């Protein structure tokens, strides 16, 4: 999963930072927060922080790389993805 401009290490670090601040974050919210991080960094420094590829969806932006990154992190024991009983969405 190597794409020029995409930094998997930074994405993993940002995901862990977000989950440390807000455990149980839904995957949909995580997509949005990653988009906002890249957007803010681009506005300040002229380049995205992680370089993810974002797609417009009905519920908000979706980072194409996030699902694979979360699977790798779950396999490595860094995070645990669970089905949320209150929503139709998964939480991390």
List keywords for this structure.
about 90 residues; alpha+beta; two-stranded antiparallel sheet; 3 helices; 4 strands; globular
Architecture blueprint of SSEs:
Layout: H1 8-21, H2 27-45, E1 54-57, E2 60-63, H3 66-75, E3 82-83, E4 90-91
Antiparallel strand pairs: 1-2, 3-4
Q: Measured on Cα atoms, how large is the radius of gyration? A: 13 Å
Order of helices and strands: HHEEHEE
Query: How many β strands by DSSP?
Result: 4
Q: How confident overall, as mean pLDDT?
A: 90
Major sheet details: 2 strands, antiparallel
Strand content: 5-15%
Which structural category do the helix and sheet elements fall into?
alpha+beta
Uncertain segments are none
Major sheet: arrangement of strands = 1-2
Helix content: 40-55%
Give the overall form.
Answer: globular
- How many helices? The count is 3
Structure characterization notes:
A hairpin with a 2-residue loop joins strand 1 (54-57) and strand 2 (60-63). With 92 residues, the protein is an alpha+beta fold. The strands form 2 sheets. It has a two-stranded antiparallel ribbon. The longest helix is centred in the middle third of the chain and has 19 residues, at 27-45. The mean pLDDT is 90. The protein is 47% helix and 13% strand.
